[in-house]
Amino acid sequence: MLSQFVRMPKKKVLADLVYDFPVGTNALGRLDENSEGLLILSTDKQLTNLLLQPENLHQRVYWVQVHGKVSTETLQTLEVGISIRMHKEDYDTKPCKARIIDTPSNLAQRGHPVRDDITTTWIELILTEGKFHQVRKMTAAVGHQTMRLIRVAIEDILLLDMKPGEVRELTQEEIYSKLKIQLPITHQ
User: Fold this and answer.
1) Cα-Cα-Cα-Cα dihedral of 62, 63, 68, 71, to 10°?
2) 96: helix, coil or strand?
C-alpha cells in the first residue's frame, strides 16, 4: 500500500483502509509499496515537523530479509556507515545498529512470498535517519538484496501484533511520550 490518501489507478492507498480518518491526516514518514509495517498518521503538523527533523535522531527499527548469508564483517560495515547513492550523489549513512535475528514469527502473508529454495538472512537494522529507500540501498551496497522489509518500531511506538491495515489510536500525550518528544506548551 502506498503511504498516501490520494487514490491512484490499480494501487492500494491509505484511503482504502476501513477507517474514518480525520480531515488533514498525513503520514509521518513513508513506506514504499514493497515495504511493510508501522506507519504513523497524524493531523498534528507540529509533530510532523519535530519527528522529521534530522537533529532529533529518532530510532527506526527494521526487520530485513536479505538474499544470501550475512557475515559479521558485513554487519560491522553497515554499523559504521556506508556510502550509498542519493539523488545522483554519494551519501554516507550515519552509524546504526545491525544484528542477525531469527526469522520473525507470525508475519502476515505476502502477495509475493520469498521462495523457500533461496538462502536468506533476517537482520535487524536500527537507524536514526530515513532517507529514500535507504535500507534497500544499504543492503545492496554490501551485496545483499532486500527481499522483505518491515518497519517494526519508531522510538517506543511498536508494531507488536498489529495486522496489515489495522489502525490503533494514541492520545497526543501517548504519542509524544513514546516518540520522546516534548509535548508543546499550549497558551491559554
Assistant:
1) 70
2) coil
pLDDT tens digits for range 138-169: 999 999 999 999 999 999 999 988 988 899 99
Answer yes or no: are the C-beta atoms of 35 and 44 closer than 8 Å.
no
Going by C-alpha positions, the residue among 132, 169, 10, 141 that lies closest to residue 66 is 141
CB neighbour class for 141 (10 Å; exposed up to 12, middle 13-18, buried from 19): middle
The model scores a pTM over 0.85: yes
> Would residue 116 show up in a list of annotated catalytic residues for this protein?
no
Strand segments (E) across 68-115:
83-86, 89-92, 97-101
Active-site residue identified among 32, 90, 92, 161: 32
